[in-house]
Amino acid sequence: MSHQLLKGKRGIIFGALDEKSIAWKTAQVCHAEGAVFTLTNAPIALRMGAINQLAEECGGAKVIPADVTSEEDLNKLIAESMEVLGGKLDFVLHSVGMSLNVRKKNPYTDLNYDFMHKTLDISAISFHRLMQLLMKQDAMNEWGSIVALTYIAAQRVFPDYNEMAEAKALLESFARSFGYHYGKSKKVRVNTISQSPTRTTAGSGVGGFDAFYNYADTMSPLGNASGESCADYIASLFSDYTRMVTMQNLFHDGGFSFTGISGDTMQMFADKGEG
Ligand SMILES: NC(=O)c1ccc[n+]([C@@H]2O[C@H](COP(=O)([O-])OP(=O)(O)OC[C@H]3O[C@@H](n4cnc5c(N)ncnc54)[C@H](O)[C@@H]3O)[C@@H](O)[C@H]2O)c1
After folding, report:
1. Tens digit of pLDDT for each residue in 145-161?
2. Taking the C-alpha atoms of 164, 166, 171 and 172 in order, what is their torsion angle to the nearest 10 degrees?
3. Measured from the CB, is residue 203 less than 6 Å from ligand 1?
4. Choice among 113, 161, 182, 241 that is catalytic
5. What is the DSSP-derived secondary structure letter of residue 1?
6. pTM of this prediction?
7. Is the CB of 96 under 6 A from ligand 1?
8. Domain ranges of the chain
């Protein structure tokens, strides 16, 4: 279903770990829509090797290692991407998240603060760092588009999402604040997409993921948004059809965020009587 929506556009896609990754699916859509891009991930993630298969599928895209906590890595990535792609960038996808406390199963009321610093650095501060370095290298074309992925736990409490809730709140705030500065100086737009629970490595790492997933699916009039549909939405934000959208947190969740209760959920409680 290609419309060559991104023909002539150049970009960088962060975070394609395996074929379940939202970034992986986004790379496939961007390629089908005519874009050229580099792929990047943390050096340790690249050792798994799966990304080379994606790179090949995407017309021999160059894979460049970069840990998002390293300014040096990011600077090299940006410079090399412009070089191999032949000019400034039109889009960047930040699809990166990791919580050490979640990984170690530390409860929210007993967190390790060294881990928390690392979580915030990888999952949120990296977004500011990336945009600051893009701006310093003057790497984005006017009307370029930068997107990061987030989750509704930034606004509402989902207890098992743990410290990632704070990481996402910070990420969304960076999109607003940096979006202002990048819009003013270079007409670059910055948005976050708040995606439904999706079965990926990062997603499934959150405690009680199946319950999260099924609850959201039951509550959303359209059901959960898939990784594939998220990739389509991201491509639309990279396209020229969304040029005036910036500094937004955009819910891509089948209607979950604005549903009070669904008929199916009502049904589950109907048998409880009047109490
Ligand atoms: N899966 C979900 O349910 C869901 C829902 C909403 C938002 N999100 C967000 O979507 C984004 C992508 O996650 P995903 O679900 O596709 O899972 P994923 O595990 O496939 O992707 C996460 C990526 O982050 C990368 N990463 C971790 N540390 C890094 C570092 N130091 N430097 C560079 N890269 C690093 C990983 O290697 C991996 O590729 C994340 O921001 C996640 O929080 C996911």
Report:
1. 999 999 999 999 999 99
2. 120
3. yes
4. 161
5. -
6. 0.97
7. yes
8. 10-270
